[in-house]
Amino acid sequence: MSSLYSTVYKKLWGYHEVDLDEEQDLNPPRMLGRHYNSTSGSLWPFLGWVLAVILAVALVANQRFENQSDLSCQRQLSTYSPLMEGFSMDSRVVRVNGSLDWPSPYRGPPSPEVDAAWNRISIIRPLDIQLTRDEFLRLDGDPETAAHNAPEHGGQYFLVPQSTHHFHCLNLLRKSTHFKFDYYDAFDPDFTKNRKMFEVHLDHCVEILRQFIMCHVDVGVVTSHWVEGRKKPWPNFNTQHVCKNYEQVLEWTEKHQLPENTPLMPAKPAGVAEMSSPP
Question: Which stretches of sequence are listed as region Disordered (predicted)?
Answer without folding.
Answer: 260-279
